[in-house]
Amino acid sequence: MATTVLHKADTRGHADHGWLNAYHSFSFASWYNPDRVQFGSLRVLNDDTVAAGMGFGTHPHDNMEIITIPLEGDLAHKDSMGNAATIKTGDVQVMSAGTGIQHSEFNPNADQRTKLFQIWLFPKTRNVTPRYQQITLDTAEQKNNFAQILSPNPDDAGVWIHQDAWFHLADFDKDFAKTYEIKKEGNGIYIFVISGTVNVDGQELETRDGYGITDFKTLDIKATTDAKFLLMEIPMKY
């Protein structure tokens, strides 16, 4: 019997700093909810809007797998590994913080906001050598499909991280349905709706809702409107 947890969009933490408007699916910074600390190895899912020309100053991370998915606009990145790059809508970026990194992120555009998801997963191996990777996705692969954008395997589609996790982006037409099969026994799924309305095994999800499911083998997912969503398969034990 599947076990589920529903996080409606309006139950998320919220902080509006002017330059940054952030929604937190899990406890983050000054927002703490003891029932919303993590879902398995998924520790952070932030839905951020960064004002034009603004950003995050240099700050440290360690022993975390950090995934950034731009939804609108660009994000310029610099880090202590010597990487300096700009990620754009349609890209995905990962950093394995490992033994420790410092980085900064800012919106390089003076006339356009940047919207992005930043996601943190606990790694399966601590104190790895820090690494950075970014790729441009073929968004056409997401049409009525679970397009893989992240896995544990460097040779697979998408970026890779030090965790037995698989991320997919999907862009379903209204009434399209597809079944997802778990890739690793014991993993769970966290689905986050980017836009539209999706039905997952009978549970209706709306824009920016999150839904965690464990103890299952397959999930039937149907778009009840045109819909985009992020599907994250993650270890519940790590």
From TrEMBL:
- Stored InterPro entries: Pirin, Pirin_N_dom, Quercetinase_C, RmlC-like_jellyroll, RmlC_Cupin_sf
Official protein name in the record:
Pirin family protein
Tell me which UniProt keywords the record has, alphabetically: Iron, Metal-binding
Q: Which GO terms describe its molecular function?
A: metal ion binding
Family of the protein in this entry: Belongs to the pirin family.
Q: Which organism is it from?
A: Flavobacterium sufflavum
Which amino acid positions bind Fe cation, per UniProt?
H59, H61, H103, E105
Q: Where is the Quercetin 2,3-dioxygenase C-terminal cupin domain?
A: 149-234
Q: Report the co-factor binding details.
A: Binds 1 Fe cation per subunit.
Q: Which cofactor does it need?
A: Fe cation
Per the database record, which ranges form the Pirin N-terminal domain? Answer: 11-121
Q: Which domain of life is it from?
A: Bacteria
